[in-house]
Amino acid sequence: MINEYLSTSAIARNYKIRTKDLFYYLMSKSYLYKEGKHYKLTDSGFKLGGRYREQKEYTNVVWARNCLDEIIADNLAPHLKGGKYRYPSGFKGGSMEEDKIISAIESGEINAQNISFDIIKKEAITPTPTDVHGELDYGHAILDTQDQLNKYIYSYSAMIKSQWVQMFNSLKVPLGNIEIIDYACGQGLASMLFFDKHKDARNRSNITLIEPSEIALNRAKKILRCYMPKAKVKTINKVLDDIAENDIQADDSAIKLHLFSNIVDMDIFNIGKLLDKITTIKGKNYFIVMSSNRDSHGGSPRLNVFYNYFKNNDLYKVIKAEKNSFVMKNPSTYPGAKDFNVRYVYIETKV
């Protein structure tokens, strides 16, 4: 006989929802509350169709079959998007979970005086994040959950730091009026490393963060506002192919710093069409592209496309153009860890 009642976990599995997300949602809508380690039904939960099931060692909450169907379909159920399941916009990109980075900033534990890339990393990876490495798709996935954000930092922050620290150590940019545009910024890691190196630029800069993951963009915005309390932080929740010229216009007199951290190498957007929009920005522009040096899945050939774009154009003056690679030692002691083979492009222009 088919059981008339299903556990919360069973319902979550049926809908491809993480169990803790469903529990959190039911608590946020006052169908459940937590007493110690146990979930309890409210009157609304009973009316909705919740009951208790007695087990040998404990009592758990179960639900009448189909009683949560409408709630889940309207608010939580993932839908296919780009061949993968994504939470709908009403889920707010997994924001039902507390973002511990944002919480640490709001509590003052992380503040404008002590914030740094290393402190953000430590907060994100302590304790060791849930193992959702496969969901990151080698760093290509649009992230949906807190676990994915934290696992991304755990998995890739050492590589990203090795790329950008060497570049920023050698970068000669006048630290006056600076506007940063961080493309596919993720959690803002490249921008963080810039302000770690150039602390004097924090309150003389504005920043535009472009990122398709709402949950990553929200964290990046909070972090960069902590770095730059007096600056303007603009966010654009789009994929790069959807960027419009008016999204990225900047003060003509400002130094524009365009950061591309581990995105140009991905074959997921049209480089020429994006640069056609960017190169309308007047004034002095610096373009910095960082990537792992590889020839597969897009890879270094796409960095060559980016570099070559600036060779045949009369709309601006190219002051400097450089592409190269270097190897940085991997600090990881994990067996089989390889050193970081880095490829970069650096362009200075004036329009």
Describe the structure.
The protein starts with a strand and ends with a strand. It folds into two domains: 5-77, no CATH class; 157-350, Rossmann fold (3-Layer(aba) Sandwich). It has a seven-stranded mixed beta sheet, with helices on both faces. It has a three-stranded antiparallel beta sheet with strand order 1-5-4. The chain has a two-stranded antiparallel sheet with strand order 2-3. With 351 residues, the chain is an alpha/beta fold. The chain has eleven helices and 14 strands. The radius of gyration is 23 Å and the shape is elongated.
Summarize the structure.
By secondary structure, this protein is an alpha/beta fold. It has helices at residues 8-14, 19-28, 43-48, 69-75, 100-107, 117-125, 146-170, 189-197, 214-227, 271-278, 300-309, and strands at residues 5-7, 32-35, 38-41, 50-54, 59-64, 79-81, 84-86, 178-183, 205-210, 233-236, 255-261, 284-292, 317-328, 340-350.
Topology of this structure?
Layout: E1 5-7, H1 8-14, H2 19-28, E2 32-35, E3 38-41, H3 43-48, E4 50-54, E5 59-64, H4 69-75, E6 79-81, E7 84-86, H5 100-107, H6 117-125, H7 146-170, E8 178-183, H8 189-197, E9 205-210, H9 214-227, E10 233-236, E11 255-261, H10 271-278, E12 284-292, H11 300-309, E13 317-328, E14 340-350
Parallel strand pairs: 8-9, 8-11, 9-10, 11-12
Antiparallel strand pairs: 1-5, 2-3, 4-5, 6-7, 12-14, 13-14
Helix pairs in contact: 1-2, 7-8, 8-9
